Amino acid sequence: MENVSTLSDSSAEMLAAATAAEVWITLKFTWSSKEYTVTIAESDRVLDLKEKLFTLTRVPNERQKILGLVKGKLPDDSVRVADMKFAPTKKFTLVGTPVGEEFKEISEDQLPDVVNDFDLQIDAASAEAKSMAQDKRNIRKILEAAKNLNINIMYPLRPGKKLLVLDLDYTLLDTKPLTSGMLPAEECARPGLHEFLELAYMHYDICIWSQTKWTWLEAKLVELGMVGNERRNYKVDYIPMFKVFSMRDGKPFSHAVKALRIIWEHFPQFGPHNTAHVDDLSRNFVLNPGEGIKISAFQLDGTLESQNDRELEKLGRYLVWLACHSDFKEVDHKNWKKVARALKENSEPSSCGIHDQWEIGVRILSNHVMAGGFKYPICSECASSSSLIEMISSVTRSVVRSVRNSKRSVPTFVSCTKRTFVQPTRTERASVVDTPPPHELENKFTPRADMLGFKLEVPAKVQGTERPIYLDMQATTPLDPRVLDAMLPYYTDQFGNPHSRTHAYGWEAEAAVDEARKHVADLIGADAKDIVFTSGATESNNMIIKGVARFHKEKKNHIITTQTEHKCVLDSCRKLSEEGFEVTYLPVQSNGVIDLKVLEDAIRPTTSLVSIMAVNNETGVIQPLKEIGAIVKKHRVYFHTDGAQAAGKIPLDVNEMGIDLMSISGHKIYGPKGVGAAYVRRRPRVRLEPIISGGGQERGLRSGTLPSTLVVGLGEASRIAKLEMKVSVSAFTSLPTIISNLVMNSATVLRDHAHVSALSKRLIDGITSRIEHITRNGDPNGYPGCVNLSFAYVEGESLLMALKDIALSSGSACTSASLEPSYVLRALGAAEDMAHSSLRFGIGRFTTEAEIDFVTEKIVAVVQRLRDMSPLWEMVQEGIDISTIDWGQTQH
């Protein structure tokens, strides 16, 4: 992959000359009791000034009120700086409220709407077009944008190819149902998208340039196959739009446009003579009106017209015809549809340049699957044998890539299709062929990465990374492909109800559920009959805590838990308090571990249940379960542990540890979401009152039809977790000792734990060796896959906003919406500012060393940058003990 981020010498000289030709002035502003200095050119406008102030204060342009620029009123954004007279020493005042940059789910009314979008037509020969092109401000800012642009060449630009700049939203796909999730991604693509890109790539290097915020579209484009294919080497992205002013209803109006010169400055082989720019909005052509090809906006409005849209078919014909021209400036694109229509009717325009027209239709039959598309007329020069070979081979490759539409990796799909299924007659079994069935592949060809010549973006993350690096394993884990493989047959062929005892469909599902039950039990050293399937750990915790307490309420009404439990445990206990139960919330020590003596002193004759989590979801602290179990058993009290963060990650044996009840989550061990389990001991029997009534399934403790597919996934995830973590529990006396031993001697553990431990150490050492004033929250001997660090003199939310390339958390996923500091860290004795500055790093099975190294570099750079902006950090650097400052005396 080649990286291009510098201008040519001539372009650099032009930028220097444009900069030197400007008259620069310095303005001083006060905002929020702070002073800022801004340097700006006289040719700039008030809008440019506001954008610079935004970078300093984070106050959005629309909220900025600049007092003093124009006497007695607020200046219009279109006013040039040169038109305002400033006193050299005058200070201006900025009024406005800043906002954060955190990503939020977009609502329906926030989605782009083409119907009401502002558009305008500017003729290439008009005075307005020439004025915009010659504007000193525009020239300088285009060159600045080109200089700051980083371009990653994913596929080498091919000699002799033309350049095609394509808009994304409403040109290639319908953005609104795509980003809102109303429709699957493949249904939002414009008809003929794949075939169009295949054809265009034969003649053009393709650049996709979209003004829609990338965060909205990334996940959906992965589904479309335009991002994140099996080679993971291309990413469609957007670059900043260039703002200009046009007249609207007689008044200046600012709008973002696309300046092709930004691209041309990096690639001198491209220019007006060989570039075509396709967009559904003419306003994007105002700086390059001669290169613009206006296409109709595409919206899936449910009409026959949208379903039968053939705009890309017409455009494909036109672009092939256009590619035959040596100089595009000789062609007027205003009538491109007439040319396309003439080509279809085989009536050549006089200047078409086509010799022997003929239809090319590629039909590849492979295992009863037809791969082909529109039949485009192509001139004989373009239809050379090499071009035909390129087209045929690319279409053939798309058969394999179309498997991506089902969101399965190719290995998973192949292994799935090799499984043995019961035939409809149920009298014999047969192996399914390796090839996907026709209905899975027909008409599902999606655009591929290798059709696109290069991408434009800000500096990339780790090479090959398409989405933010995921380090939030305590919130959820990705589905292991082996788990998906086990689940797929139960979505299709083996779909029976496991509670149907009168036919083979039910028997098959019941057998699968029983096998999954055994795998879950084996993971924690339990009997399979003790496992009750639920919807997840939250339901299991509610069922166990409320069920045990209510069953024994006549004789025992006291419950013990800790201050650092998961929110669903604390809320269940609060609910019971409202019902008259007494709840004791045990404090924890500074390392997050409970004091065993405090626990024993808290137990009363009326205590029915002790609920203490195994591994904390925010700090990774491991409680001494074996010791707790011994104390609780001595007092004849039931012992429950929330094992959502422990099962499959650390060794557990319910019998050896004296655990009577346990909660387990599927999606925390690389299984599916929506399924979990509760371990409820039968011998000696633990009695609890069910909270769900119905058909009496699951020993009457949890009624309702079991989702056999999800249960199978949980069982397979448990089986894999046990394989990936083989450690003898009996070799150690307590869990913290086990973990400490594993960190020191990774040879005692297989795969998962050694992998996670090594990456955890690499992360901690990499950060702490380069940044001072860092606190690791919790016990250092805790679970290594959960690392919680506090960065002094830095706000945690600011850290998260600056680390958009990394998926992290500042606390529990279940309480992340709260702006309050983590109650878990406060319980450990952390100061409020340190609790606010904490980040949780979740490392897992699929985390790589390259990702850890990237995260380390990013964290170090961001923390240093944020500290440099902090007045407190400046005081600390000067040796001032800020804890001795009476901040109340500094306020006026």
UniProtKB/TrEMBL annotation:
Cofactor dependency: pyridoxal 5'-phosphate
Question: Which molecular function GO terms apply here?
Answer: cysteine desulfurase activity; iron-sulfur cluster binding; metal ion binding; pyridoxal phosphate binding
Domain (Ubiquitin-like): residue spans on this chain: 23-101
PROSITE patterns for the chain: AA_TRANSFER_CLASS_5 (PS00595), FCP1 (PS50969), UBIQUITIN_2 (PS50053)
Gene3D superfamilies xrefs: Aspartate Aminotransferase, domain 1, HAD superfamily/HAD-like, Phosphatidylinositol 3-kinase Catalytic Subunit, Chain A, domain 1, Type I PLP-dependent aspartate aminotransferase-like (Major domain)
Q: Name one GO cellular component term.
A: L-cysteine desulfurase complex
EC number(s) recorded for this UniProt protein: 2.8.1.7
Q: Which domain of life is it from?
A: Eukaryota
Establish whether keyword Iron-sulfur is in the entry: yes
UniProt xrefs under SUPFAM superfamilies: HAD-like, PLP-dependent transferases, Ubiquitin-like
Output the CDD domains linked to this UniProt entry. Ubl_UBLCP1
**Job description of the protein:** Catalyzes the removal of elemental sulfur from cysteine to produce alanine. It supplies the inorganic sulfur for iron-sulfur (Fe-S) clusters. Plays a role in both tRNA-processing and mitochondrial metabolism. Involved in the 2-thio-modification of both 5-carboxymethylaminomethyl-2-thiouridine in mitochondrial tRNAs and 5-methoxycarbonylmethyl-2-thiouridine (mcm5s2U) in cytoplasmic tRNAs.
Task: Specify the protein name.
Answer: cysteine desulfurase
Question: What is the protein's species of origin?
Answer: Ceratobasidium theobromae
Q: In the record, what lineage is assigned to the organism producing the protein?
A: Eukaryota, Fungi, Dikarya, Basidiomycota, Agaricomycotina
